[in-house]
Every structure is written in structure tokens, then in C-alpha cells.
Amino acid sequence: MPPQKMRGTIPCAILICLLPCALILYGLVEDGTGTDTLVSSAMGVVSALAITHLLLQNPSGLSALLLTKPLPAMIGYLAWMGFVTVLSGSAIGERMIEWGMLAVYLSVGVIVFLLLRTRPSLMHGMLRGIDALGLLVLGTFAFSLFFDVRDEMNTGISRIFGVYGDSAAWTASFFFVLAFARKQWAIFAAFGIFLGLSGSMGGTIAAVSGVLCFLALLVFRGRLKPMYLVLPVLLGCAGLWLLQGYGSIPLFDRLLNEEVRNFSMNARYGAYWTALRISYEFPFFGTGFGGFADTALEQSGLDQLFPLGFSAVYISNAQNQYFQALAEGGIIGLGFYVAMLLTTIRWLFRLESAEPDPVVRQFLGGSFSWLTAMAITNQTAVWVMPHSLNAIVLSLIIGISAARLIHRNNFLRYIAHQRIAVGRASFPYRSNPRA
Fold first, then answer.
1. What is the mean pLDDT of residues 119-125?
2. C-alpha–C-alpha distance, residues 321 and 20, integer Å
3. 23 in Cβ contact with 39 (< 8 Å)
4. How remote is the C-alpha of 23 from its chain's centroid?
5. What whole-number distance in Å separates Cα of residue 335 and Cα of residue 95?
6. DSSP for 60-72?
7. What angle do CA 320, 322, 325 make, to 5 degrees?
8. Contacts with 287 (C-beta within 8 Å, 6 or more apart), sequence order
9. pLDDT surpasses 60 at 323
């Protein structure tokens, strides 16, 4: 007998999707300046719901690993960066929203977990909300594939989901294929399309290295033949050749002025060297969250040449998350940041190896591959520091959504069997009517 429809399903689904949808509209009409804090809190709430949904599927062992493995490194990284920021006397700025994000993840996660344990009728509504949100995220990422982060039309959208420009586009391509494709050739097609429409030359390099990393991981696991590694190399060469005639600027950004086109890559390299010089001057404690941009602009002199231009914006961050962590937090801050990535990757790998549930294993495998590739490709790509923690948790949301789309029927049957088993366990000593 199929389970009866529970009360509160539709209202709960609406509530889960309402706030992110409202913030998306807000990001479309604004330039994204004041959106980060609100959006990070909203995505933290939805992230807590998604993680809670996963905990309720398999609470034995999974919850303990989730709460003990990655969090110490995350808390250590945030605490150290906050300490050096206060010590340096620099402005806190929007980068300190990481503290608020972590607090939201923990507090809302505990509240929602307790709520669902006492009110299991909210479970189905939460699942519908996560499905709708996953489609919304995938659709927005697909849209961002055609607009660079420098385009004002896309600034609010990029900030909402915590991942900027190039990284957002190819990450979305991978999870889109994971959710809707069953053939390996679709992975090559998705990445090939992205290489032709890449946001910048740096994004193309990041995409090529990310594809190679992901495919090498598949070869290492025996899921792909080694000869297929040749195909993305050819696609990458084609993408580089295509972008060579456009001055390292994407196909859809040709309307930008000549100043931006001629200074794009120079600003990237200047950002690298500026971050290294700052790291040499502040090797142990760094400049803090708010001090890096001011120090970088002052040392480069670009604040005088282009006070409101594209180059000044590019030089104000390191264009590399490792350089950024080293310049802002010193050697200790970089150690905490790398530990945060490595513990999360190791946690996902161990969970995937030991997880018997195919639904959970599907999501863990996608998240592991994504995070491993991102940790390597960000040596050449742009993944802005204040949103890195948000992006890690966002990968969990997309992974859950993809797994739910692929295994929808099996998962619903699993939930139904669990409810039937609980109902039978409530009457273990029912007498035999024939006795």
C-alpha cells in the first residue's frame, strides 16, 4: 500500500524555495554589492536542509564523520583569519561573512535536524524543495555559461551562488551531465562546449586542467580507458586557438572597451606578483581579510591609473586562492586553508568507499570528483576566497539534487519501505488472529 500524502508537503517546499528565488530577483536588479551577506545566509539555510536530508537517509556513521572530519579545519581557518584581521587593524569588510556562514550552517542544521526528527511529516516537503532548488541552481549556472562575471547583467547571479565566472560554468557543466546524461560521451561534449565559450584565457586553462584531472581520476578508478584522455587535450587546443584571436576575452564580451581587452592578462599576472610581494613582507600573519586589497592597489599603483577600471578590480585580489590565503593569512592561514580542502576531500573519499546506499554514493562520488578537480585547477583559476566555503557546501546541494534526479524512483521506494518498517515495528507483539 503506497504511503499516504502527508500534510505540510507543499508549504514546506514553497518556503524552502521562496527565499533563494527572491534573492535571485534581487541580484538581477542590483549589481551584487550588498547581496553577498544575505545570499550567504540564505544558501546556508538551504545547505543545512540538504545536509540534514542526507543525515536522515543514513544517520549511522555519516553524521559522525560529517561533524568531526572537515569542521575542525574549517573552524581553525576561520578563527585564524579573524585573528590576523583584528591584529592587523584592517577593515573587516564583506570577507568576514564566512563567520556568519559557518554559524548559519551549524545552528540551522541543528534546528532543522531536531525539527525533522520530531515532525517527520516535513520530510517530503523538504525533498521537493531540494529538487526544485537543484534545478534552479543548474539552470542559473547554465545561464552564466554565456555571460562573463565582468558583465553587469550577470554580477548578481554569480555572487548569489558563491562561485564566480569560469569555475561556475564548467562546474555546472559537470553536474548537469551527472544529473541528466547516462553516457560518457556527454561529459566530453559538455566540456568541449565550455572550452569554446570560456570566460577568459585563464578560465580555459583552468577548464583544461580540470577536465584532465577529472578524467585521470576516472582512469585511475578503472571507469575510463586511458586513450580517452587525448580527446579533451584536442578540445582544449581548439578552445585556445579559438580564443587567441579575441585577446583573451570571451566571445560574448567583444563589446567591452579596448582598455579592458588589452590589459586582461597583464592584470592577472600583476595580481600574482603583487600577492607574492605581500606574502614576502607579511610571511607569518599576512594582511588580514580587509588589508590585502588596499595594500595590493597601493603597491601596484593601479589605483592611480585606473581608479574605477577593470585592472584595478583585478589587482585587488590575488586571482588565486592559494596566493590569497598566503597573503591574507600568512603561512599559518595557508596551512589551515589547505587542511580544510584536504580533510573534506579525504572525508568524501572514505564515505564513498564505505557507503552501501547507491543514492548517497552517487552524490559522494560527484562531490569528491568536483572538489578534487577544483582544488587543483584553482592554482590557475579564479575562485574568490570569501565564497570558497560556500562553494564547498554548494557542491553538496548540487550533488544531492543530481543523485535525486537519477535515482528518484528508487529513493522514494526506499523512503516508503522505511515508513512501512517503522509502522510494523510499532506493533511487534501483534497476536495471531487464528490463535
1. 63
2. 27
3. yes
4. 18
5. 19
6. HHHHHHHHHSHHH
7. 110
8. 84, 88, 90, 278, 295, 327, 328
9. yes
DSSP string across 142-173 = HHHTTS-TTSHHHHHHHHHTT--HHHHHHHHH
- What are the residues whose beta carbons fall under 8 Å from the beta carbon of 52, sequence distance 6 or more? 109, 112, 113, 116, 126
313: amino acid identity, one letter: V
Query: Given this model, what pLDDT does residue 120 score?
Result: 62
Q: Which residue has 551577506 as its cell numbers?
A: 37
221 burial via Cβ count (<10 Å: 0-12, 13-18, 19+): exposed
Rounded CA-CA distance 145/173 in Å is: 9
Exposure on the CB side of residue 68, measured as CA atoms within 13 A: 6
Element (H, E) at 403: helix 388-406
Question: Distance between the two ends of the chain, CA-based, in angstroms?
Answer: 26
Q: For the CA atoms of the chain, what is the radius of gyration?
A: 23
Q: How far apart are CA 305 and CA 327, in angstroms?
A: 23
Q: What is the mean pLDDT of residues 306-324?
A: 58
Q: Side chain identity at 190, as an amino acid letter? A: A
Q: What secondary structure does DSSP assign to 329-388, as a single string?
A: HHHHHHHHHHHHHHHHHHHHHHHHHH---HHHHHHHHHHHHHHHHHHHHTTTS---GGGH
Q: Is pLDDT of 191 > 70?
A: no
Rounded Cα distance, 99 and 81, in Å:
10
Question: What nine digits make up the cell of 325?
Answer: 590565503
User: Which residue, chain included where needed, has cell 592559494?
Assistant: 322
Give CA–CA dist 310/324, Å, rounded. Answer: 19
* Rounded CA separation 336/74 (Å): 8
Query: CA angle 195-200-201, nearest 5°?
Result: 80
The label of the residue with cell 497476536 reads 431
Whether residue 406 contacts residue 360, with contact meaning beta carbons closer than 8 Å, is answered with no
Which range, 279-288, 343-352, 393-402, 417-426, is most confident?
279-288
Q: How confident is the model at residue 148 (pLDDT cuts 50, 70, 90)?
A: very low
Q: Rounded distance, CA 391 to CA 384, Å?
A: 10
For the record, the C-alpha cell of 57 comes out as 537517509
Q: What percent of the chain is helix, strand and coil (3-state, nearest 5)?
A: 80, 0, 20
- Residue-averaged pLDDT of the chain: 55
Kindly state the cell numbers that stand for 55: 543525515
